[in-house]
User: Fold these one by one.
Assistant:
Number 1:
Amino acid sequence: MREKRNLGELFAGFTGLAFTLLLSFGLVIGLIFILSRAPGRTIYYFFVGAFTNKYYLGNMLNVAVPLIFTGLGISVAFKSSVFNLGGEGQIYAGGLAATAVCLALPAANGFLGGLTALAGAVVLSGGIAGLSGFFRMKWNTDEMISSFLLSSAVVLVVNYFITGPLDDPKNNLLATLAIGPQYGLMRIFPPSKLNVSAFFALAAALLVFLFMYRSHAGYEMRMCGLNREFSRYGGINVSKYLVLPMIMSGALHGLGGGLMVLGTYGATIEGYSFGMGWNGIAVALIAKNNPLGVIPAAFLFAYLDAGAKAAMLNSDVTFEIAAIAQSFIFYFVTAQALYGLARKRRRA
Amino acid sequence: MTGNSPFSIPLIHNAVDIMTPFLLAGIGGLFTELAGMLNIALEGLILTGAFFSIVFAAATGNLLLGILLGILCAMALAWMFGAVTLYMRANVFITGLATNLFASGFTIVLAFQLFKTKGVIQFPGIPKLPALVVPPFLQRIPVVGDVLFGHNVIVYVTWAIVLLSALVIYRTPFGLRLRGTGLKAETIVSLGLNPRRYQMAGILISGLTCGLAGAMLTIELAAFVPEISSGRGWIALVAIYLGNKTPWGIFIASFVFGMAESFSNYAQGAIKVPVDFILALPYVITVVAMILYSIFRHFRARG
Amino acid sequence: MPYLEMKGISKLYPNDLLANDAIDFSVEKNEIHAIVGENGAGKTTLMKILYGLEQPDAGSILLGGNPVTIRSPLDARRLGIGMVHQHFKLIPEFSVAENVVLGIEPRKNLLFVDRNAAAERISEVITSHGFSIDPRARVLNLTVGQMQQVEIVKMLYRKADLLILDEPTSVLTEQEIRKLFETLRSLQKNGKTCIIITHKLQEVMEISDRVTVMRKGKVVAVRQTAEVDKAELSRLMVGKSVLFQFERAKKACGDPVLELVDVSLKQRGRDRALLDGINLTVRSCEIVGVAGVSGNGLGELEDVVAGLRRITGGRILHNGEDIAGLSPATLRERGFAYVPADRLRRGSSLQSTVTENMIVTSHHRFLRAGFLKGGKIQQFAERLTKSFSIDGGPRAPVGTLSGGNIQKVILARELASASNLVIVSEPTWGLDVASSQFVYEKILEMRKAGAGILFISSNLDEILGIADTIAVMYRGRVVAFLPNVPDLSKERIGEYMLGLRDDFAPEGPQRKGPQP
């Protein structure tokens, strides 16, 4: 039961998106001209730098991986009309859970150990988000605010573990002990950090898509998201679908964090996932909450991230230019006026 | 200064200082909330005010001028937030996030450009915020004296703003129309009024108060710390909801948060609990309060 | 020269609906002029144009002989035109005074609202027109009739001379309608001119001086009220005379399917119970009509029987078993079908396709290992779309369908599986004649198949036409439960509906005289 839209609407959607991106990039270019003493060089590295060598390219794709997971997590929640604002804490805690499991296991089979670690991440983060969902179901507590508050507290608690019980005394980094190398994920594009978690991400997007649009529970979840009163009238257990989407959302975030640890970092480093949660929201929005659309949307943000890094390393601007570029995209991506322009032009 | 009398309670005295940014941001945010708009940009507005106040204060050598310019910058950012949301019809939640993201990135980029560093920027020349001068006997009044007096000017300005806001919201035509916009915008439209004007006004007011809140943070510290707003904007939003969207409610909620943070500062020294847990305390207390409140409301409705 | 003239007004909506087609409309000074037509005839659009809420694509407006442009309600009000909408534009949390002065608040010291001046001026308007509202009362505490009065006061406060009322009686009780007519006559005496939009012919005959009949976007007739009768108006409105007459079953064929025994529904904070000791029985092959003015418990009855609200006392039995507290899903498994009054929010998911709407109650049937069988579902939807003649096809979003088609989707879904109890509420509200016929036919089919039907409606004509047994509700109680025999008149049912008659009063059957 694919949601078919007529071709016209799809076109308007793409045109609107194109406007958004053009406008945002235009503003970034303007900013670069103001801030940089070598604007041409900066612009080159910002827009093209990510493709100039394997290291940049691979790392860019690697950054897209957790964004796909957080984007999926948010799109599942949004489609069900619940609001998970705790993504930052959920992904951060997922990584810690995976680390802790690996550290606790005796030197075991890498594959099974890794799987257990990811399971731990899924359970912990799913549980944290599920808590907000539970309170929403039971007592109508606003899950948007409660998930945000819990996540803020969780971030601090994770920091405690990083700098306390799990701290690695041998180095000066704010990081936990490293997990055993047998749990690490295979690199697929050296010298970059891109690893097999990229395949997990693509598989996850496909699975979430199949779930939402082909499965029984996915149908019920979407109906609840569109009209809860109707769903209840039709016999769907609406309470269940206040909690389940939150659990799934948290689980996806946690999975993303766990894979970041296993694949890229090998330990939980302070702040390793900061920003992934918020960007997940933007990714979901650009993708219009469609699980498959999350993939290109995640690439867009990874591209910005990589461009900023390349520009920073090769020119004279700071990395935070990426944040500004992202904010422009955020500003315009939901501006109906831009989409309306496309539609009006077609009518005339 | 606190501790001037045998009956001073540093805990409460500090709470009053700490609660001020929450209160300022909350009152400003209240205007947007009453107009029916969710305003999560408070965080970014505070950060903007914080940065530009101290930068302009240092540049002009004049504290007041610096603060005013800082507020103006925060209002400019608020204007951008409002314009895109209202006139380009964007999703208010996302534009709020965008505003925070922008403020966060922009302040660091600018700091780097101007001061060549992305870390803490000290401004040794900045004077301390003047404190309100009162006759010493007032300060020695048991308990109340210490709580009410000895704070810096901005604290008292804030109280004045709160009172003024209550008056405006409940006694003026503007306030009536603002509330009407939030309650039932179609009625406002049917009367020939434009709801977006009132929503924009609410946003600009939040820019004003948040700018002042940010100014207080940096000027008191005589330094700019990246992300100095550190969650205060979000707490202010929670205060608005817990305070049932009334000025008095926000005042009380802000006070509770102020007490929680004051306590956690105090406890950091005295109690052997890891720092992170103490920092997490305000969030945990708020969640618990929220849940208890919804349980209360749930059972009251059931009868 | 007419006081108001609208010449050649046309309005085309973006979805290609020609709401007004070169309409000429005029009103004399000081008259009460009615505009009648079925739903969708274009009456409301025309008045929205007059009040500045919509702009015409063509045509002109003259007031007192002078051409005027009305671009917004502000312009309209400056010209002395006021409108009372069908759905009130009042802010429930504000007081009467605040609602009336909103936008033109009297000032004290330039900055503050002068509440006393406002209250004084409003009181003047209130008393001089015989209303009795407290300006300081909060609107949400008022009755519907009083809210309407506040809307009228709003206009009079702004010195309106031409008042437009859009379906003013649709939400009022008989008593409140009387009061409204008194008000209109008093306004007429005070020199005001009134335009009433309505589809209730009885009221047109009672209150108006002249009547304009519209059909499908055009004006088809203008008459002096004294020179027409209801039959002719009805003919002009619809093009043919409409009568509801159906075969009635002689006797219910079976056992009770649904029994309500002393059912109560109380809500905290409300003194009067929403449902107060309801006793009702529906048998198989029987249509039980439930009549009443909205606000007297019909909606609550619907909610509790459908399992969407929990009763606080009594029992509900289905085939002899207690079903109170069971979930909607379980009730459906037991054979319930339910066509809700709230078609758009409860009965449909407007953003979903017809197919997705159709399977919401039955998607369990199309599963294989947790996944939905797309092919089977498509077949199912296509079959139903065809047999119910639903325009638009299975893939159309329900929100793009007309009211009649939306109701067909709901009926198709509900009647697709065999049911022993069907609950329908306001099934033909807002539907045109053809769609209404369709609904009645389907309901009669269900009865033939052996279902018991609970037919809740505020439309007395259709209940008298279709029900085998009639229950009347007043203030949350059943005050009558009568077989539908030919000599059961509308007037008698009306008495029950207004609380003037009560067969089940604790003190014994009552009949009261006219209430004050």
Number 2:
Amino acid sequence: MADAQNTAPVQEQKKNVLDLFVEGARKGFDIGTRSLMPNVIMAFVIIRVLDVTGLLKIIGNVCAPVMALFGLPGEAAMVIVASIMSMGGAIGVAMSIFSEGIIDPVQLTTLVPGIYLMGNPVQNIGRCLGISGVNTKHYAMILLICLINTLASIWVMRLLVTLFF
Amino acid sequence: MKDENQGQKTPQIKVGWMGYVAFILAVLMFSGLFSSSDGWLRALDFNTLNGSFGTIQSTAEKALNFRGAGGSGAKDGFIFAITLMPAVILALGIINVVDGLGGMRAAQRLMSPILKPLLGIPGVATLACIANMQSTDAAAGMIKELYDKGEMTDEERSVTIAYQTSASATITNYFSSGAAVFGIMVAPIILPLIVMFAFKIIGANIMRMYLKAVYRKQAKGGK
């Protein structure tokens, strides 16, 4: 804990702003090529499979009444489902249905915080709940809170976007 | 005694003026405040710096960028991912500069006194919640350590982890994969971030109320 705090100032003196930018940009390139691109391709292929098989339309129709509560088409349920497994994947799915014209930029914007508030609980059970050793009795409630946060954030974003932007 | 302990165990976050400047600049840059302003101030806007791809004139319809139109599947995803990458590279470059100049520590310094009353957790635990802005595992590890040392109760740990789990590693995740949507969003880049922090705090308080209800019930049932 103390170490993590102490290492930062040492680095700070060694590197100038340009070095820092390039170092960060390199991380960005790594994330872009090693995480973003594979995730986007995966999402595009999944959406393609669902589209070709006609499942996307079925999912859209089945989820339409629920998603309508959030001002979203039924297909947008895929974004929330994907966010349970992967945040990058969910962004990919959102981008995929956006580029198909299923959601508009406003709807895309309202989905963004929710993707992170859900935050990949499949991994978080091990990484956050497991590591901290939190009482297993409370796992379900903590995960339920993630879901509540996600759904409520879509409404709040909708409200903010329509009021201010 | 307890105060002494806290003093020792909470490392003082030192922030120079440069850190605050970097932090404020980052907030301005991602706020979109200068997106439509004329002149040099536009240089302080993320989407202005990110720029745009050139377009290819097509005879029939409107001009296209190199992604083209009507693609599908993995190939379309590949080209699309390329169009998203500059935003991710730029965002992480900026974040690394801000971090290197002490801007992240300035954010920590500013958030610490806000989090403590809003979450109702011990002061030492706020440091872990702040680490949670950038790392899921490190922050959760810090909480375990605090609990093992007896510096927080089981309930306090549950509340803290409810805060940490939803939108964990907020800044890291949002500025990496989220950067892909920065150019398309209709709201300022910083808005989803504010909404996320608000809901983290709301979520933790739902947990607080839930725990209160559970323990009240147990106390009654026990007797």
